[in-house]
From TrEMBL:
<keyword id="KW-1133">Transmembrane helix</keyword>
<keyword id="KW-1003">Cell membrane</keyword>
<dbReference type="InterPro" id="IPR001736">
    <property type="entry name" value="PLipase_D/transphosphatidylase"/>
</dbReference>
<dbReference type="InterPro" id="IPR025202">
    <property type="entry name" value="PLD-like_dom"/>
</dbReference>
<keyword id="KW-0472">Membrane</keyword>
<dbReference type="GO" id="GO:0032049">
    <property type="term" value="P:cardiolipin biosynthetic process"/>
</dbReference>
<dbReference type="Pfam" id="PF13091">
    <property type="entry name" value="PLDc_2"/>
</dbReference>
<dbReference type="GO" id="GO:0005886">
    <property type="term" value="C:plasma membrane"/>
</dbReference>
<feature type="domain" description="PLD phosphodiesterase">
    <location>
        <begin position="393"/>
        <end position="415"/>
    </location>
</feature>
<keyword id="KW-0812">Transmembrane</keyword>
<feature type="domain" description="PLD phosphodiesterase">
    <location>
        <begin position="213"/>
        <end position="240"/>
    </location>
</feature>
<protein>
    <submittedName>
        <fullName>Cardiolipin synthase</fullName>
    </submittedName>
</protein>
<dbReference type="GO" id="GO:0008808">
    <property type="term" value="F:cardiolipin synthase activity"/>
</dbReference>
<feature type="transmembrane region" description="Helical">
    <location>
        <begin position="29"/>
        <end position="52"/>
    </location>
</feature>
<dbReference type="Pfam" id="PF13396">
    <property type="entry name" value="PLDc_N"/>
</dbReference>
<dbReference type="InterPro" id="IPR027379">
    <property type="entry name" value="CLS_N"/>
</dbReference>
Length: 475
């Protein structure tokens, strides 16, 4: 009798798990796998599904987002324009109207005119510009970084931020609770006793919000007086100094921004600050258009708290808009099936698709999984290049001559699904021309990967690569 009750209970648990799978799993392959697992192993299957099959990350993150006490910056009155109104906008005739409409639909922010965006290469250009901006600040300095090392660069920023706070400015520093541990001592200890306010995003804990290896704040933001900002892929670290080789050296591109989109950067920072500290932020205003600012920009906050996988959708929309050339530079490239299909479709319709990756990745297992996708991309006409050391950490997506998507996100599941990222959409021929020259220069010294090279890999290497590919959603 007891045995029969136990079997009935296990069967009921399996049916409940199967029902949950059928209702909530969108990918039919994942759904089928879980259904089989729960049915074949009545006790272990439902337990495994409960532990790792249910996406609690998205549920928790959306719950935190819903608790925000403010809606962010009000929509600027000067952005009530449309690409369909005429050809006066430089990119109006390039087929980007659909992309703008897509981003309008999935983001919380409008595309804003009147910005200036400048590319800054490596720490030698980026860090002096950021430090000068902090030194000249008159009202507020807000800095968010995934990694804030306590090396020479980190100490220079600590001193500059302390001095700004001593001048009576509102200075806030937000560091990721896991990323801060890349350095010892952690940077927040260097601010002890100062007037700088410190926030930690999801610090590891056994209670409260728990221990999360995902849900990391990967954003890099510096906002000065709500009119000048910096964002991109660089952390606060000596590793980004090209002239100072280190074991973890990473060359990169960052961006200096002036204009109304800085208000959207501030909005993203304040949302994270409220989540990390519980402090209700002050009202956020949108700066006016910059005289002579040629860039149309939109800030894209992406993360598991959002209603849409907006960054993935925008990337797919941008690829679909490409007519002549598509250039991608990223350190971590693990595309899902939709992204592979979009890249191949672009190549098949005659677009030159160039993908630049580091020849030696600092995460070997990511490089293995990435290489498992090469064959089908090369087969349909995409071109893949390996950039020589040092490790290239730059994250760029360029479409033809007018559009750039830049920021903190990589083209991998961790950035597109699991972490909090900030990117900028930029329509600006000047910036794209500058970045195009940079990418072309990188291609000139890179090694092109051929189909023959991929096919000629030893069987052991191909088995390893494809085994790593199995874990793509979690890398």
């Amino acid at each position: 009798m007891l045995e029969a009750l136990l079997l009935a209970a296990l069967a009921a648990l399996s049916l409940l798990a199967v029902g949950h799978v059928l209702l909530h799993k969108r990918d039919p392959r994942a759904a089928f796998g879980w259904v089989v697992f729960c049915c074949v192993l009545p006790g272990l299957g439902p337990l495994g599904y409960w532990l790792v099959g249910i996406n609690r990350i998205r549920t928790r993150a959306r719950d935190w987002q819903a608790k925000l006490p403010f809606s962010g910056a009000a929509e600027a009155g000067f952005c009530s324009w449309s690409l369909r109104q005429g050809r006066s906008i430089a990119f109006g005739g390039e087929g980007y109207a659909a992309l703008v409409s897509l981003a309008d639909a999935v983001t919380r922010r409008p595309l804003l005119p009147g910005n200036r965006v400048v590319a800054l290469h490596n720490g030698e250009q980026t860090f002096p510009a950021m430090l000068e901006a902090i030194a000249s600040a008159r009202d507020s300095v807000y800095l968010a970084s995934y990694i804030f090392d306590t090396d020479d660069t980190g100490k220079a920023f600590v001193e500059a931020l302390k001095q700004a706070a001593d001048r009576g400015l509102d200075v806030r520093v937000l560091v990721d609770g896991l990323g801060e541990r890349y350095s010892f001592p952690v940077a927040r200890r260097l601010f002890k006793g100062s007037a700088v306010a410190i926030g930690r995003f999801l610090p590891p804990a056994l209670s409260g919000r728990g221990l999360h290896f995902n849900l990391r704040n990967h954003r890099k933001l510096l906002i000065i007086d709500n009119w000048r900002g910096f964002t991109g892929g660089m952390n606060i670290s000596d590793r980004h100094l090209a002239a100072r080789p280190t074991r973890k050296q990473a060359i990169d591109v960052h961006f200096g921004i002036e204009g109304p989109v800085v208000g959207q950067m501030l909005e993203a920072f304040m949302e994270d600050w409220y989540f990390a500290t519980g402090e209700v932020p002050p009202p956020i205003s949108t700066p006016p258009p910059l005289p002579g600012g040629t860039a149309f920009c939109r800030g894209v906050s992406a993360g598991p708290n959002e209603d849409f996988e907006k960054l993935r959708w925008i990337i797919l929309g941008a690829i679909g808009c490409a007519r002549h050339r598509l250039r991608i530079m990223t350190p971590y490239f693990i595309p899902d099936r939709t992204l592979v299909a979009a890249l191949n479709a672009a190549a098949l319709r005659g677009v030159e698709v160039d993908i630049l990756l580091p020849a030696k990745n600092n995460l070997p297992y990511v490089a293995w999984a990435s290489r498992a996708y090469f064959s089908e991309l090369l087969e349909h006409g995409c071109r893949i290049y390996y950039q020589p050391p040092p490790f290239v950490h730059s994250k760029l997506l360029l479409v033809d001559d007018q559009y750039a998507l830049v920021g903190s996100a990589n083209l991998d599941p961790r950035s597109l699904r699991l972490n909090f990222e900030f990117n900028l959409e930029v329509f600006d021929a000047r910036l794209v021309a500058d970045l195009t020259e940079h990418v072309d220069s990188a291609c000139g010294v890179a090694r092109e990967v051929t189909q023959e090279q991929v096919d000629g890999l030893p069987v052991v290497s191909r088995l390893r690569d494809n085994f790593a590919k199995l874990f793509s959603p979690y890398l």
